[in-house]
Automatic annotation (TrEMBL):
InterPro entries: ArsR-like_HTH, Carb_Metab_HTH_regulators, WH-like_DNA-bd_sf, WH_DNA-bd_sf. This is Predicted transcriptional regulator, ArsR family. It comes from the Bacteria. Residues 1-25 are annotated as: Disordered. Pfam families: HTH_20 (PF12840).
């Protein structure tokens, strides 16, 4: 049995060189599965069809690998409803499980947990809080010029924050809520983080999540609210960022020919503040 060789590449230089013929299908499957897992991390929540388009695989091949990853406990299915009224069943989207998050990198986690636990025992909880504050102070300093260069619109600032988080391995993304919903009264952006390099550490020491939320609020200039965190068992870390409130026009009254007609105005925007929630 011979393995396929890419154009311009000899058999001796294939990535599977040295692999026994009997082992070849398994090795290919494992590498393809790793690609699917990495794509779920980067793009999740994501559907099987979207993964097929991203990776160039058939829907049947993608679902086979998704089923295997699900059996291994590395991914989970999340139902996401459509914002449109009267929509059907929630769409199936795939996200990493806590086990999948752990597999993709918590280097030196146990050392860090032991060190912080000893710090808390010797110096008290405030010492851990100060340590977390110092770590995120560095993030805030690095991110501030990036956010400020995005301009004044909260949507643009949130998108810049998501991009900065992605460069640090948090897989950030944003989604506007209420923009196209006919009955929405509030406009907001949801900032999502698909991966947390310190997830298990933050689960034991919530100060890390609290400090990060405070950094987001200061960088964006509004109070934000944490809706979910990976550390507390969520599929992703989600932060609610209020953009404003839509004030709908009052019902039209009978015309008054003596009155001066007001300037046309369909809506007004007011900043909506939310109490910061503990994850």
């Amino acid at each position: 049995m011979s393995h396929p060789v890419a154009p311009g590449q000899t058999r001796a230089h294939t990535p599977y060189e040295g692999t026994d013929d009997a082992e070849y299908p398994r090795v290919v499957d494992e590498r393809t599965r790793d690609k699917v897992l990495a794509a779920v991390l980067e793009h999740g929540p994501v559907s099987a069809a979207e993964l097929g388009d991203l990776l160039g695989y058939t829907p049947a091949a993608v679902r086979r690998h998704l089923d295997a990853l699900s059996r291994d406990g590395l991914i989970e299915v999340k139902g996401i409803g459509s914002p449109s009224p009267g929509a059907g069943r929630p769409a199936r989207r795939y996200v990493l499980s806590q086990r999948g998050q752990t597999r993709l990198g918590n280097d030196y986690l146990h050392i860090a947990q032991a060190a912080l636990g000893q710090l808390r025992e010797v110096a008290g909880p405030d010492a851990v809080r100060q340590f977390a504050a110092g770590r995120f102070a560095d993030m805030e300093e690095r991110y501030r010029p990036i956010i400020e260069s995005a301009g004044e619109r909260l949507e643009d600032r949130a998108a810049a924050l998501a991009e900065a988080l992605s460069l640090d391995g948090f897989v950030g993304s944003t989604r506007e809520i209420g923009r196209n919903a006919p009955n929405a009264a509030m406009l907001s952006v949801q900032l999502c983080q698909g991966h947390c390099p310190i997830q298990e550490l933050a689960a034991e020491f919530p100060d890390f999540c609290e400090q990060e939320t405070g950094v987001f609020a200061r960088l964006l200039g509004v109070d934000v609210r944490r809706l979910s965190t990976l550390a507390s068992g969520g599929h992703v870390c989600t932060t609610h960022i209020p953009i404003g409130r839509v004030a709908r026009a009052a019902p039209e009254a009978a015309p008054n020919t003596d009155a001066v007609p007001p300037a046309p105005q369909t809506y007004a925007t007011f900043v909506s503040n939310h109490q910061q929630g503990r994850p």
